[in-house]
Amino acid sequence: MSQQQYPQQQPGWSGPQQPGYGAPPPFQPQPPKKSNAGKVIGFGCLGVVAVVIVIGIVSAVVGSGGGSTVTDKPQAKASTGAGAGGSQKKATEEPAAKKPDVAEVGDTITVKGMEDGSRLDVTVVKVADPAKSSDEFMTPDAGKRYVGVQFRLVNTGTAVYSDSPSNGAQVADTQGQQFQSTFADITAGPSMSADVKLKPGAKALGWIVFEVPKGSKAATVQFTMDSGFADQTGEWKLP
């Protein structure tokens, strides 16, 4: 009786194995891992936005804090209106410049000279129009008359005043014609000296005479220090 032959097993070979009996399971691909890069980028963007917001809030707080405002422009003054429904002037509108009052006989005007501390209070005291010559041999030219203006000068400065006041005085008529002073004595009173020297606080009084056409109406008289070369001029309206 023949014996059944079995194939001989090779060393190290254990034969076919069924799954579940110690054999490793078949290879299965693993799902890809989720990357955290998107989260990192997202959190980074949110961080930047948050920093910008915080900076904006801090700037707003600093700008409005303390109650004081720094500006490089002058602030306009608010004008008072007639009410909520009334019209108001613009805050930036400048007020209209006031016209200087016209000085008249009896008024005093302060004028300055070219030298530091040179200042006079000048007053037109009286006017004689027409004025009569006190010297029968000295009379106005034909067709003209004398107009006398009495000035009082007070040195209110700190420098000594030394000048001939008549050199800085002149009369103008209604047509704008100007007339310089002339050397003449009138019956109204003593003439102003041709060489006046006044220390601070001192005063001088005298008449200055002008020769004006008989047909002209004397309208104003002017006085300027430094024989008419100073910058400030006083002007009075004549009656």
TrEMBL record:
It comes from the Bacteria. Keywords: Membrane, Signal, Transmembrane, Transmembrane helix. The keyword Membrane applies. Residues 90-100 have a biased composition (Basic and acidic residues). The keyword Transmembrane helix applies. Residues 1-35, 64-100 are annotated as: Disordered. Residues 1-21 have a biased composition (Low complexity). Residues 119-231 form the DUF4352 domain. The chain crosses the membrane at residues 40-62. InterPro entries: DUF4352 (IPR029051), Immunoprotect_excell_Ig-like (IPR029050). Residues 22-32 have a biased composition (Pro residues). This is DUF4352 domain-containing protein. It comes from Streptomyces cynarae.
